[in-house]
Recover the amino acids of this structure.
């Protein structure tokens, strides 16, 4: 592909592992294939049980000293890490593109966004503090925030650097040490990220591990973990909830979403279709807050669907002539099979394929931008996260019907409403049981936002100042003067 031919050469990534000779937790090495053409990106060894033990021991030894390090010095280390990420933006972006199929330009944006997050926590960390209480005049009463200890950070493949910077940055800013495992679909990117950030930290403060789901499960279930922070699939999140219920670790989870888009009567149908296309097709639909299901008012449904099909038709696989990516591949063929299964189930149940929805020929894991109409609430594309470039459309007779059906879901990550009505906008953000509601824009928001997912979509704050609260625990201190004899 032209994109690869002109991209910087992939760096030789040293995966920070300690090989012990014992069997890997998950068995064997990880082989990563490029989803564009099926070529081998590289192989990385999976952590052994001895590696996990070593990492916990290193993190535990480093924890007291890092907790005592002044917050301003921890902030300086994060600023230095952010600068180092910016210096390595090309290498990180190319690795991300080769491992997951993400367009290089978008991958670069993810790296720079992650660096910005580290810089935010570098500033917020020294400002994070407890408060004093009003008690007896002769006593001092304080509520003091302290680091929780060792944080296990399990991060996803779809935006690996940006998400890692959020979890790792908040943990380090508040004085925790970290065991970090990136997704097995992006281990080279994760290993390079960990190596860059750890280079400016004391030994043992950030410990990178590679491995599959078995390695992640072993880390999440380990009683030496004080926090398990995970961004990824719902099934994995459920297993982490169960594991931490036994160990007592705090679980911070952002799991899958099934985000609805409501298109209300009175909006411009072409504008609404453009918004729907961005939400459904950006990063080939592989974004946590992608639009998964669309409820459009019957009054504009025909014009909206026509415009949406035109939007999908403009999103074609990478253009070698232009060297630009309109629609990159899915992360791998296994995931493509899962996306296609959702589409096929909908068609068998009565949905109509207006464009896309066919398994393409040729190498790689490409899947076309797809528009389905005639979708019903029982279809898998309306009940579960598809995580692919599929716009599943249901025509409704009223805003009330749209709001009711959008809210009838076990997930609770995000939702969008496009409406000219302030009343409907107000009702939507009040009534939808999700962590984030966006009105008249599928993406966007001010820096520092920190939503709490609902239902099976997770628990705890992600990003923002509130994530610093999640990474700390509060100790109440009461001090009185000693009584002197006599």
């Amino acid at each position: 592909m032209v994109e690869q031919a002109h991209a910087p050469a992939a760096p030789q990534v040293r995966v920070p592992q300690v090989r012990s000779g014992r069997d890997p937790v998950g068995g064997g090495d990880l082989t990563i294939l490029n989803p564009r053409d099926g070529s081998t990106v590289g192989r990385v060894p999976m952590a052994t049980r001895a590696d996990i033990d070593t990492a916990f021991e290193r993190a535990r030894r480093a924890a007291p000293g890092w907790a005592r390090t002044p917050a301003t010095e921890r902030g300086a280390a994060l600023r230095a890490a952010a600068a180092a990420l910016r210096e390595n933006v090309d290498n990180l972006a190319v690795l991300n593109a080769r491992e997951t199929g993400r367009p290089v330009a978008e991958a670069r944006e993810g790296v720079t966004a992650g660096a910005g997050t580290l810089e935010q926590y570098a500033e917020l960390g020294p400002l994070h503090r407890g408060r004093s209480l009003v008690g007896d005049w002769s006593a001092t009463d304080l509520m003091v925030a302290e680091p929780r200890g060792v944080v296990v950070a399990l991060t996803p493949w779809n935006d690996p650097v940006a998400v890692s910077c959020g979890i790792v940055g908040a943990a380090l800013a508040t004085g925790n040490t970290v065991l970090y495992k990136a997704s097995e679909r992006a281990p080279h990117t994760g290993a390079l990220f960990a190596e860059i950030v750890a280079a400016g930290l004391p030994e043992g403060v950030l410990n990178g591990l590679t491995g599959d789901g078995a390695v992640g499960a072993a880390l999440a279930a380990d009683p030496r973990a004080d926090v398990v922070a995970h961004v990824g699939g719902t099934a994995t999140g459920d297993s982490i909830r169960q594991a931490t219920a036994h160990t007592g670790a705090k679980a911070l989870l952002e799991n899958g979403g099934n985000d609805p888009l409501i298109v209300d009567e009175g909006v411009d149908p072409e504008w609404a279709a453009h918004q729907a296309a961005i939400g459904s097709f950006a990063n080939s639909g592989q974004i946590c807050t992608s639009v998964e299901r669309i409820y459009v008012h019957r009054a504009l449904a025909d014009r909206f669907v026509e415009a949406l099909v035109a939007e999908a038709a403009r999103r074609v696989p990478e253009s070698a002539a232009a060297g630009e990516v309109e629609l990159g591949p899915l992360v791998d063929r296994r995931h493509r099979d899962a996306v296609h299964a959702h589409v096929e189930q909908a068609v068998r149940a009565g949905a109509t394929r207006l464009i896309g929805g066919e398994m393409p020929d040729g190498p790689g894991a490409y899947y076309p931008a797809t528009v389905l109409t005639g979708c019903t609430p029982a279809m898998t594309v309306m009940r579960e996260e598809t995580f692919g470039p599929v716009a599943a459309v249901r025509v409704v007779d009223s805003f009330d019907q749209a709001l009711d059906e959008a809210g009838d879901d076990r997930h609770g990550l995000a939702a969008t409403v496009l409406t000219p009505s302030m009343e409907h906008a107000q009702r939507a953000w009040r009534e939808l049981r999700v962590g984030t509601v966006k009105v008249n824009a599928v993406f966007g928001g001010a820096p520092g936002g920190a939503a709490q997912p609902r239902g099976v979509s997770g628990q705890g704050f992600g990003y923002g100042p509130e994530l610093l609260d999640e990474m700390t625990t509060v100790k109440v201190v009461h001090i009185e003067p000693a009584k002197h004899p006599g």
In short: The longest helix spans residues 104-124. The chain has two domains: 2-255+453-475, 260-439.
